[in-house]
Write a structure and sequence with these properties.
Length: 292
């Protein structure tokens, strides 16, 4: 939509979502992916990815006269808002997430002097806070639900007065897919997850299946399926990361149909009916175009 409204090239800081097929398709249409805003020509259009950015990135873009489109996922924005609120109340914030992940970097930038990264249940053992009575936790939105609960429980043992966020931080799509994988794993001999290797939520789905004792593999497309994975397997479970295009899942199902599989059923653990609006800057450009 941004390419239609503003024309190519449109620059994108980092990958818009962590999926190689989405990125390649957008590149073909004229999107240019960069690591930092300093790589974007002054005055050009730049899109901030769904994983969010630190305030400093916005300031840098403004100082260079860039036209910004904020494609941050609203669920990530919610975590940023929570970080600012807790910091304003002088809390130390224990951010559960993976070091170096773009979402973690962006959230940390909201209150760098207050946020401490906790990577897993053992990650909080060495964390030092100023006041154990003023500590809160937040999380990256694409984590394992079960591991996050385990991590919070471990943190609460150290900090009994640990404050919770107003509502769950983990993305509804991430939670729903993990619930579905748990459901299909119990009946499957192998689980295939469609998603890219840098997609945190896709990797978590593989881990969820393996936690159930089921062989599981992450693939970008049906072309990556290996015959040895299917040998002596009767039931194959299929899932996908939240950013994987639906057509890739359809292609994987078609792969099995071509092999003569006819007994195919769909599992829907939770019905998804959440819809997000386009970024404000794109909505305004569309409205201006319709008015002219």
């Amino acid at each position: 939509m941004a390419l239609e409204q503003f024309g190519a090239p449109v620059y994108v800081r980092k990958q818009i979502v962590h999926n190689t097929h989405v990125v390649r398709n957008l590149e073909k249409q004229g999107a240019v992916f960069v690591e930092e805003t300093e790589e974007v020509p002054e005055g050009a259009v730049v899109v901030f990815s769904a994983h969010g950015v630190a305030p400093q990135v916005r300031d840098d873009a403004k100082s260079r006269g860039l036209r910004t489109i904020d494609a941050t996922c609203p669920l990530v924005t919610k975590v940023h808002n929570e970080a600012r609120r807790f910091a304003a109340r002088d809390y130390d914030i224990l951010l559960i997430g993976h070091e170096g992940h773009e979402e973690v970097v962006g959230t940390t930038g909201e209150a760098p002097s207050r946020i401490h990264l906790v990577d897993g249940p053992q990650g909080g053992t060495e964390v030092q806070v100023r006041d154990p009575a003023r500590v809160a936790w937040l999380s990256q939105t694409t984590l394992s639900v079960d591991e996050t609960k385990e991590t919070v429980a471990a943190l609460r043992e150290r900090f009994p007065l640990l404050a919770d966020p107003p509502s769950d931080d983990i993305c509804y799509a991430t939670q729903n897919r993990q619930a579905a994988v748990k459901q299909i794993a119990s009946d499957s001999d192998v689980v295939l997850v469609v998603g890219s290797r840098n997609s945190s939520n896709s990797v978590r789905l593989v881990e969820v299946a393996r936690d159930f004792g089921v062989d599981s593999h992450l693939i970008d497309s049906a072309s990556e399926v290996r015959e040895e994975w299917l040998r002596d397997k009767r039931v194959v479970g299929i899932s996908s990361g939240a950013s994987a295009p639906e057509n890739l899942v359809d292609e994987l199902v078609g792969f099995f149909r071509a092999r003569g599989v006819r007994d195919i059923s769909e599992v829907e653990a939770v019905r998804e009916d959440v819809r997000f609006m386009l970024p404000k800057q794109v909505r305004e450009a569309v409205a201006a175009g319709e008015a002219s």
